[in-house]
Amino acid sequence: MKNLRFKFVVATSPLFVATHIPRANYMIKHKEKYTEQQRYDFAMKIENHMRRRARTKTDVFGRENLPQDGGYIMYANHQGKYDALGIMLAHPKPCAMLWEEKSADRLVARQVCGLVEGTTISFEDPKQQIGALKTIAERVKDGKPYLIFPEGGYTDNKNELQEFKSGCFSCSLKSKTPMVPVVIYDSWRSMDTNTFEKVRTQVYFLPPIPYEEYGKLRKYDVCELVKKRIQEKLDELKEADPRR
């Protein structure tokens, strides 16, 4: 059996799900009754429960690098089911996320996506992809922070990068807003293993890349610029890891 830790989180949370999912659905249906912060805080309450059940703690570095005003897009490496939880719980203010359509339609993920007003994308529908990326660009331009995983998904890559999809960087080129590379380390250990020991992961918000630095580059080159920043930090962390 695979991912026993994740299955343990799900199996030991029936009472929490029974009480919090209906409340989340109500808040999504009646958004006018709740502020953005209230809905986001409730989403983080759900995510924090999952973090605790997964026996995971996350060390966060570089919050001072996050822009204080306006929208921006965080581009992070992808390792497993805990990645979005670890980053969003570390983020100090409401942010949205780009979700793969099928993943966002699962119980709990569907509620969190609705509460944070995330955007879904279909890997099988190019036209829908264009529309989703355009929506994100508009929302970021209007001041909304966003989280995107440019690898699109994950396999068994652990702390190794996979290929980045350059298309998602059109959101930054269109919105002309800062890009914040985000590095997660050991995130795969939280919900993608068969062990039950306590886990400690790491999140690094790297210095933002302003539009003035990348605005004249081609989409592919913007992609490579962000990937290079993330790879350099990963190499640094792996070099310092005493388990190597």
From TrEMBL:
One of its GO terms (molecular function) is acyltransferase activity. It comes from the Bacteria. The keyword Acyltransferase applies. Keywords: Acyltransferase, Transferase. SMART domains: PlsC. Residues 72-187 form the Phospholipid/glycerol acyltransferase domain. Coiled coil: none annotated. InterPro entries: Plipid/glycerol_acylTrfase. It holds the Pfam family Acyltransferase. PANTHER family: 1-ACYL-SN-GLYCEROL-3-PHOSPHATE ACYLTRANSFERASE, PHOSPHOLIPID_GLYCEROL ACYLTRANSFERASE DOMAIN-CONTAINING PROTEIN. This is 1-acyl-sn-glycerol-3-phosphate acyltransferase. It comes from Coprococcus hominis (ex Arizal et al. 2022).
